[in-house]
Design goal:
This protein is of the alpha+beta class and 429 residues long. The protein has helices at 12-17, 19-27, 49-58, 67-77, 86-97, 102-107, 109-121, 131-148, 158-169, 186-210, 219-225, 230-260, 263-277, 291-303, 335-338, 382-399; strands at residues 33-38, 41-46, 63-65, 129-130, 310-314, 318-320, 323-325, 330-333, 403-404, 410-412, 416-418, 423-425. A hairpin with a 3-residue loop joins strand 10 (410-412) and strand 11 (416-418). The relative contact order is 0.17. The model has no long low-confidence stretch (mean pLDDT 88).
């Protein structure tokens, strides 16, 4: 059991006060598994890459998504892939994979380039830009268009407002996160209204497309063509929207913030973009020729993995690194800790993109770096998210010179989020 276990409350207060700091303290030992008591439940924090690989990949069939995830997401997206198990999950995963094929993802490259160019063109030159808001709006607009054909650029739609209330319900430092949904807290009431708004709006979108209004090579078309029920289609759209936009927005904001805070890295990136693109808007075909951009994004995802916690639970008694785990035990796999472990990373808290191009620094366990999870349930949209990040960063850095006017800091929500926002000066190049 980790130090700090208090009567009745266990480790709950420490986690509520400082989730990220607590994870680092509890995971900063030589133990592969650390037991905790949070919100009255037994939690096992798994911080050895080899053990993480067993849970996510080698012995994945012995684990399922933790009950705590199903409790948090059931009302919002109960019929989605995220919450399915067994053969039903395998069939749905295979169906949805066609919507994220290499060709389909590459076809979205022009959309990212156009939307990112439009965003940067609107930025002022005489005052700082609110990086968190801009990254959030861009990510939501791209995914809404790519997934279900909605153009929500330049609007603050009901989807925007509902998204904010849904994410507030899942904030790790909010007491409402640990209470049943029926408890009438203000956060829970806003959450229920937000879920109703999202369901109504997307039910309308699905119905219009099913009636033949509009068409497109998007995920919505893929699911309707496969004959999935409308409510299931809606749940999948919500799942992919929330899995994508908030985490991608955080990753984009953190990457641009790190670039703005490291002038030498920014200069190297500028040189590469100028040499390889010569002013052209980047496309997916350009990405293999941009190794500095690739290293910058990888390093940003290492320092600030949006999905900083992954949750599983064993379906039967298992032994993990000599620890016995009963069915239903919450198993927490923390990329936040894995990515900052000094056993596997030199200067783990430093932003050093060059480490990804130095072969001498890349001799580490595979599962020491899991920004998109791993194993059979690795994020289905990882390729899309990675492409979006790289193309958007390239477009911004082609056109603007970045300088952070503040401190990059993150907080633990449903994903990592900027703590208090981040402003950046962005004069034209």
């Amino acid at each position: 059991m980790a130090p700090g276990n208090r009567p009745i409350v266990g480790h709950s207060l420490a986690f509520l006060r400082d989730p990220l700091g607590s994870l680092e303290r509890w995971g900063g030992t030589d133990d592969a598994v650390t037991r905790l008591r949070i919100a009255g439940r037994t939690v096992c924090l798994v911080t050895a890459p080899e053990a993480v690989q067993r849970v996510l990949a080698t012995d994945a069939g012995d684990y399922r998504k933790a009950e705590v995830v199903r409790e948090r997401l059931g009302t919002l997206q109960g019929g989605s892939l995220v919450l399915l198990e067994g053969e039903e999950w395998r069939e749905r995963r295979q169906l949805l994979s066609s919507g994220f094929s290499s060709a389909r993802v590459e076809s979205m490259g022009a959309l990212v380039g156009d939307y990112a160019t439009e965003m940067v063109a609107s930025w002022p030159t005489d005052r700082p830009v609110s990086l968190g808001r801009e990254a959030s709006d861009l990510s939501l607009a791209i995914l809404a268009r790519a997934l279900f054909g909605l153009d929500i650029r330049g609007e603050h739609t009901p989807i925007h407002a509902a998204a904010e209330d849904v994410l507030a319900r899942m904030d790790m430092q909010s007491v409402s996160t640990y209470l049943p949904e029926w408890v009438p807290t203000p956060t829970n009431r806003r959450y229920r209204r937000a879920v109703a708004t999202l369901h109504d709006r997307l039910d309308e979108t699905v119905a219009r497309r099913a009636d033949g209004e509009g068409s497109g090579a998007d995920l919505l078309s893929t699911m309707l063509s496969a004959g999935l029920p409308p409510a299931t289609v809606r749940d999948e759209l919500i799942a992919f929207l929330f899995a994508g936009f908030d985490s991608t927005a955080t990753a984009l904001a953190c990457t641009l913030g790190l670039i703005g805070d490291h002038p030498e890295v920014q200069r190297r990136l500028h040189r590469e973009l100028e040499t390889e693109l010569d002013g052209r808007t980047p496309t997916p075909a350009d990405l293999p020729e941009l190794p500095t951009l690739d290293a910058v994004v990888r390093e940003s995802l290492r320092l600030y993995p949006p999905q900083y916690l992954l949750f599983r639970e064993p379906t039967e008694p298992v032994t993990l690194c000599e620890y016995h785990l009963d069915p239903g035990t919450i198993v927490v796999l923390p990329p936040w800790v894995l990515h900052r472990d000094d056993q596997h990373w030199t200067a783990p808290t430093a932003f050093r993109p060059r480490r990804w191009r130095d072969t001498g620094e890349n001799d580490r366990p595979e599962y020491a770096y899991v920004p998109y999870g791993g194993g059979p349930r690795r994020c289905l949209g990882a390729r899309l998210a990675d492409q979006l990040l790289k193309l958007a960063v390239a477009v911004v850095c082609q056109r603007r010179r970045l300088a952070v006017s503040g401190t990059l800091s993150v907080a633990a929500g449903p994903t990592l989020a900027l703590d208090g926002g981040l402003e950046i000066d962005a004069p034209r190049r």
